[in-house]
Amino acid sequence: MLDTHPRTAARAARTAVRPTGEERTFAADELIVSRTDPRGVITYANDVFLRVGAYSLDEVIGQPHDLIRHPTCRARSSRCCGRP
């Protein structure tokens, strides 16, 4: 879904990944899907992505994809997934 709503303060405030220490699982037949624009800004996220990430759609649309990157994961390793 393309975001057509103005940015909110709550959305802008959630910029850092905060690990919970809780494992979140998903079924073998479920896929985590997100789509970004050329700048790496999230334009779509499916329900599995949102559930596993514990985000609402409003919290992720318009945010940089590294929103979901664990702080100890290097940016380079997350770029290899789905990008040439």
TrEMBL record:
Residues 7-19 have a biased composition (Low complexity). CDD domains: PAS. This is PAS domain S-box-containing protein. Residues 1-20 are annotated as: Disordered.
